[in-house]
TrEMBL record:
GO terms for molecular function: DNA binding; DNA-binding transcription factor activity. SUPFAM superfamilies: Chorismate lyase-like, Winged helix' DNA-binding domain. InterPro entries: Bact_HTH_transcr_reg, Chorismate_lyase_/UTRA_dom_sf, Tscrpt_reg_HTH_GntR, UTRA, WH-like_DNA-bd_sf, WH_DNA-bd_sf. PROSITE patterns: HTH_GNTR. Residues 21-89 form the HTH gntR-type domain. This is GntR family transcriptional regulator. It comes from the Bacteria. Keywords: DNA-binding, Transcription, Transcription regulation. One of its GO terms (biological process) is negative regulation of DNA-templated transcription.
Amino acid sequence: MFYSCPMEEPVTETLDRDSAVPLYQQLEEILYAKIAGGEWVPNQRVPSENEMNRIYGLSRMTVRGVLSKMATEGLLVRVPGKGTYVAPPKITARSPAYKGVREQLEAQGYAISTTLVSVETTAAPRAVREGLRLEGQDVVAVVRLRSANGSPVSLHRSYVPADLAPDLADHDLVGRQLCVVLKDQYALPMASVAENLEAVAVEGTDATLLELRRGAPALMLTDVISDPTGRPFEYSSIVFRGDTVRLQFDYEL
């Protein structure tokens, strides 16, 4: 949640107008330092364009350009009709193929909660059918919403062939990781994962559950998980809020 607080800026704060460094770049460096040094904290409103014009003696166009650039970089958030705020730091997570999202975020100190949105046996969507190499079999579709510190961060959809996991809906799919349930209850251990990552614009139910405006940017990670015999047994897609989560990938070359 964004908030306003008194800005303890001096009435005037001069830039070095004799420097070879452009004035807009000097302003960028000042604002970066305020955020990095903790003078401006996440969700705090920063001075308006008019206020910065008064403080730094720059045109509104120059100030607007700097603020827009910092918003594009994810350091600021511009809210129409309200102002510009310091963006909260993004949550860094690795692919769930390495470790479950919940465990990763809990290890970083976040309070994680999971909501079971739905679980049903249904016909497999085309992408799921192709990924799992199905020939008409139904799947169990599990939809869960993950929240960190009370705010939604990711929407998980998992599909498992119904004949491989009968009565899956009867198990604890909130308190336990699905991969653990599949391994312990159905002898379906993870041996390999094929992943795809793409940028998407959220719509409909996804936007509502993630508390985003329709068309907002997000990251979608799709996994096809196979057992030691090479048989795919789970297709999952995770939509991460683009304004909240950063995915990290590490490679050894």
